[in-house]
Amino acid sequence: xxxxxxPWYLLAALAAAAALVAAHFIVRRQPRAMLLPTARFxxxxxxxxxxxxxxxxxxxxLALRVLxxxxxxxxxxxxxxxxxxxxxxxxxxxxxxxxxxxxxETRDSVSAIRVDGDVVIxxxxxxxxxxxxxxxxxxxxxxxxxxxxxxxxxxxxxxPVAAEEIxxxxxxxxxxxxxxxxxxxxxxxxxxxxxxxxITGDPADPLAVALAVAKPLARADVxxxxxAPVAADSQWTTAQPGRVLLxxxxxxAPGGFITRAESAPAGxxxxxxxxxxxxxxxxxxxxxxxxxxPVAWWIDGDVAAAEAVLGGGxxxxxxxxxxxxxxxxxxxxxxxxxxxxxxxxxxxxxxxPVTGSTMAMLAGSGGLAPSSxxxxxxxxxxxxxxxxxxxxxxxxxxxxxxRRRRAAGAVAGPRGEAAVAAARKVA
Length: 427
Hints:
Largest sheet: 8 strands, mixed
Strand content: 15-25%
CATH architecture of the largest domain: 3-Layer(aba) Sandwich
Shape: elongated
Structural class: alpha/beta
CATH class of the largest domain: Alpha Beta
Low-confidence stretches: 423-427
Strand order of the largest sheet: 9-10-11-16-15-14-12-13
CATH superfamily of the largest domain: Class I glutamine amidotransferase (GATase) domain
Number of domains: 3
Number of helices: 11
Number of strands: 17
CATH topology of the largest domain: Rossmann fold
Order of helices and strands: EHEEHEEHEHEHEEHEHEEEEEEHHEHH
């Protein structure tokens, strides 16, 4: 059904077109001849008078002027096609995070559910921890696009619903969806064997000593590079999914950091969980970039370590100096920090299923969400608006051309030629 965002523009155009048509019935012409007994009673007045014509003159310019005004008014009115609401549409929230064991299973589950008119929203990335809260926010925004085309909207969540995807905001965001949801569970990855990180460099390196004492274990292949990474390191990272290249240089700036003009002191560093309080000298400054996420921070909030996705794995850059003085490398808090930095991309995984109460919270209760409960989508006019404006401009230019040709023809006609000849004789 055709509707308009600003129908008053169309009404104004219709009124202007009617005024144009009415104006074309008003003409100036020579009055009817009258017999007078003497010429001295003839009034001193123009030989032309204004009156009404039974038939409008200049039909071609009139048609072009009316068409120009109507097309401009139609364009300014903002036409769009309003869909008739009816039936049920679905917003399918698809988990693409590392908690999904097989993307083929996810794709098959979506294919079995989706029909024409449904909206599919992906959240998460293969090498990162997924956030169901972020996915629910995106689903609510997508549901507003279905407001005019369906009576109700069903939320379908295709995910393993792992514990690591639930955070403190999930319950609150889920309550913003006014209706029940359908949960389609997919499998999580099978537990991998725990492995120790490997380190390249001097065996007497204090970080190598800390690794030998802490003996961190992770569900991923982790390679620690204490110098400049080479092409072989990047090839190793991308050879298999889930690998972590831990760039922790001794003296050079790690990837994503630059050397400070002057070193700055720091009283400690905090990772996703562990923290260590000790005097540090910060020699490098983090450079924010798209795709690079902080994973550790100095006590004042500056970034101390960050990671970026590389193929199916990631590169984690660490700007924390490792002191060889004292018992720093033997401290348990530094060992806890080392274990956290040696975890897979996105941190230590938590693939265990959520509790029954969390599943009930996500599923909700009651009927489906009415489409009218979602925010109205932003106004989008029809792409035909620009063509209507161009057509209006074309009519205006064509009317000007027709009017000029008629004026030239009137001058070049028999009366025009006689006037020119008389003027020449007088000259």
